[in-house]
Specification:
alpha+beta
Length: 79
Amino acid sequence: MTTTEKVYADGYGRWHVIVKDSAYGLQHAIYAIASELQERSAHGTDPVDVLHYVNDNIVSIPDAEPGYIHFAEYSILGN
C-alpha cells in the first residue's frame, strides 16, 4: 500500500495531499506536492527549489479521517 492516498488541486490553485499518519507522512506529503508542482513548472525549474518552496509553505488541515493527515501547499486564512 502506498503512503500517499490522494493528491489534488482545489479551485484556488492550491495543492493538497492526504497521507497515512506515519513518521514519514510530512516527508511523503512534501514530495507528492512538489512532484505535482514540478510537472507544471517551466522547463529548467530546479526541483530542489520546488522542494524548498513546499517545505517552507506546507500546512496541515485538521479534517482527515483517523489514521490519515491532510496537508496543503499553503494556508488560506480561516483554514
